[in-house]
Structures are given as C-alpha cells and as structure tokens.
Design brief:
Layout lengths: L3 H15 L5 H16 L1 E10 L2 E9 H4 L14 E3 L5 H8 L3 E3 L16 H6 L6 E7 L5 E11 L5 E2 L5 H36 L5 H22 L3 H16 L10 H4 L7 H8 L1 H8 L6 H12 L39 H16 L10 H10 L7 H9 L1 H10 L4
Antiparallel strand pairs: 1-2, 1-6, 2-3, 4-5, 5-6, 6-7
Helix pairs in contact: 1-2, 1-6, 2-6, 7-8, 7-13, 7-15, 7-16, 8-12, 11-12, 12-13, 13-14
Length: 408
Amino acid sequence: MLSEKQKLTKIIKLGIEITEVKDIDVLLERILREARKLVNADAGSIYIKEDDQLKFSYTQNDTLQKRLPPGKKLIYSTFTIPINNQSISGSVANTGETLNIPDVYKLRSSLPYSFNKHYDDLSGYRTHSMLTFPLKTNRGDVIGVLQLINGKDAKGKVVPFSKKDEPLILNFANTAAVAIERAQMTRAMILRMIKMAELRDPKETGSHVNRVAAFAVTIYEHWAGKRGIAHDEMEKDRDILRMAAMLHDVGKVAISDAILKKPGRFTPEEHDIMKGHTYLGARLFSELYSEFDEAASIVALNHHENWDGSGYPGHIDPFDGKPLPGYENSGPGGKRGEEIPGFGRIVAIADVFDALSSRRVYKEPWDEARVLETIKALSGKQFDPEMIEAFFSCLDSLHNIAERYPDH
C-alpha cells in the first residue's frame, strides 16, 4: 500500500506520463490501470461523454481476469447510459460531484440513483465499494466518468474507499481529463483524414480503420508478449501502432477516381498505378516530426509486402517510386521475411482479416471458417508465421473488437 506522500509523488509522475500517450484507446486503458493502482481497486470502468449520453468505453477487473488463461483479455460490450440522476455514473456526470459508496447493495431507496446488478449476475462478480468521480477539463466541463470498484486493504480484503484518497484521485482525474481531450482531438484529426479517403474510396470507413487498428494492436500484444518485449516498449509501440494502422491506406487519396472507383477488375497497368498508394501514403509522413510520423510512413509503405517476397512495392524510394540503389537493374522486388518492418507485417494480417470478413461492393462477407482457413494457408507465404500464431491465439478478442466497431 502506498503512503499519502508516495501517492502524491506518483500522481505528479503519472500526470507527465499520460500526457505523452496520444491514442485515445491506449490512453483510457492506461488511465484506468493507474487510477486503480493508486487506491488498490480490484476493478474499474471508464465512461466517455458522447452528446447527452455516457459511453461505456473501457473496463478492467483483476478477479475476473484471473479466471482467464494467461494472455487472454476480458471480453466486454460497449453500451450507453443517459446522463441523469438515475444511475451512479449518470448522476456523477450530471452533477459533477464524486460519489464514494461503501456498499452499492446497501444504498438507501430514497436516493435518486441505484446500482444495476445485471453485470454482477452475468459474471458472478460481487461489487461492494465504489468510488465514482467526474473527468473534468480545465474549463470545468465533464467529458467522462471514472469508476473504481472494490477497494482492497493490504491483505486483499474488500473495503470502502478512503475519504482521504478523494482529493488525490480527483487531482489525477483532472490531469487525465486534459490528456483525454487532447487524445480525442488527435483521433478526430485522423478520422478527418480517413473521411477524406472515404470520399475517394467507400471501403475506407471509420469502422474499417478502427477495426484494423484495434486488431493490429491486439495481435501485437500477443506477439510481443511471447517475444518477451519489455513492458515500457510495448506500451510505447501500442500507442503509435494504433494511430499509424488507421492510416494504412490513406495514400489512396492520390489515386485517380477512374481506377479507384472502377467496378470491374483492374488491367495490369491500372493495378500498377493502384500499388502506388503505398509509397504515396508513406510520402505524406516523410517529414518525420515524431515517432508517429515514422510509424505511419512504415505502415503505409509496407502493409502489402509479403513474407515470401511476392508483395509490393518492394525496395523503392517513396519520394519518386523508383528502385533503390542496387535494385535499378533487377527491379525493386518484394521485401521478404523480417526485412519487412514488424508494424507492416502486423497491419497486413489485420487488414486482410477485416477485408475478408466484411461486406464489399464486389463481395459478401466470407464465413469465418473460410476466412481462417485462408489466413492459415497464407502463413509463411503472405504472412509472418509467428504473427499468425499470435493472431489465432487472440481470436476471441478480435471478435469482440469487430462487435465494438460495426459497419453502419
């Protein structure tokens, strides 16, 4: 258990760290995890305000997590609740006031809000203590709610949350709200770029790119975990990969409508032009102001390279699309094996999985058995075999992601 001084020092340090996280999904997971650590909470959830609703956006639960096999994540569905005084989270968002409840099953019937025990009944979990507080910006606007569940003492016994922790956790919440607001702005800018691409190519929807990005991060987590990659490096990689993967096909904005929107098959010449979306996308991020720019450039350029060297665009200069020195006579060829950057290899799997599983103007979605059989057959050919193992080990999480980002 941390002392008050240690908690304050931790909050100051965390305030600096979370402002460095750029992706909203990665940030919410980090905020919830760190807030739980501060008050030794067994579980918790984050709700983000969308119009006049609260969207259940992220959850963690150590007790339920321990029931799962190693490496598996909790599966959960997103939902919305109205911002009013009828629910605990809705009341906190509505009033902007913290609620510290020793036992949610012993709430007075005279209170305007009540506890919905539906999730407890479904999961076999028992919620007791609950600390729910608003996420307020510097302007005082409530942009979400953070809810911590079942505080624990040094022996692991569930206890009420300490009143003394409230000012500390509110301090952290204010910093978290500012970081969330910044991350939301970053996501909005990325989605504007996606909308620009969608105007040119209807396949490039917000749902598609969110699925591909979330798939990529999940596959990466499993692959990196098996490789023993350090936690800090994984956290950093997840953040930039999530954003970079969303922009994997943004180079299509530079492809002619006559080709991009052609209903039939491409001629060989048209296909060659279409392949240019890889280096054209990479070129958009050629001025490397940040690690995100570098990652976005890498993903755009390499997500159509194949493990066996049969992909494209190969060894080229993104600025002019011409072969690199040493490849002028033989042609650029395809990169092969680990010559293809890891982010490119991961997004390749995520992109194909979503394309095969989704409806397109030229095809119906394939049934899952056919999708998985195809992807398995491409291991060692189109895809990195080690990453395909990671893909198959996290299928339940991938299904959950697909449900959270449905096509509209």
